[in-house]
Design goal:
By secondary structure, the chain is mainly beta. About 0% of the residues lie in helices and about 50% in strands. It is built from no helices and eleven strands. Strands 2, 4, 5, 6, 9, 10 and 11 form a seven-stranded mixed sheet that branches. The chain has a four-stranded antiparallel sheet with strand order 1-3-8-7, with no helix packed on it. The termini are far apart. About 35% of the residues are buried.
């Protein structure tokens, strides 16, 4: 079974940057779409960004577009989320997720990491 482990979270001031990593226990990342999520008011998890297995398609939530960049290194079974120009409202636990048949921005994510805390101070 796929196991995902996030890292790279921390405390940063508004306008700063962080890079989150999500490593998979098996060589599955190269075949699956990968996504990043965070909690939001009224939602269990809010979509942040995703990248297709081919790396030719990336998708971002409007709230992070232009500030966050998702990428993957299939040889390392790792997906990254580069977060720039961070805002206090970005504060959340960030989760990476994947699945063998992801559809759109929310469906099909059946493997989840434990989360990594990102705190942005004003």
């Amino acid at each position: 079974q796929v196991q995902l482990v996030e890292s790279g979270g921390g405390l940063v001031q508004a306008g700063g940057s962080l890079r989150l990593s999500c490593a998979a226990s098996v060589r599955t990342i190269g075949s699956y779409t990968m996504g990043w999520f965070r909690p939001a008011p009224g939602k269990e998890r809010e979509f942040v960004a995703s990248i297709s297995r081919s790396t030719t398609t990336t998708t971002y939530a409007e709230s992070v577009k232009g500030r966050f960049t998702i990428s993957r290194d299939n040889a390392k079974n790792t997906v990254y989320l580069q977060m720039n120009s961070l805002k206090p409202e970005d504060t959340a636990v960030y989760y990476c997720a994947t699945g063998p048949r992801v559809v759109g921005t929310t469906r099909g994510y059946n493997y989840w990491g434990q989360g990594t805390q990102v705190t942005v101070s004003s």
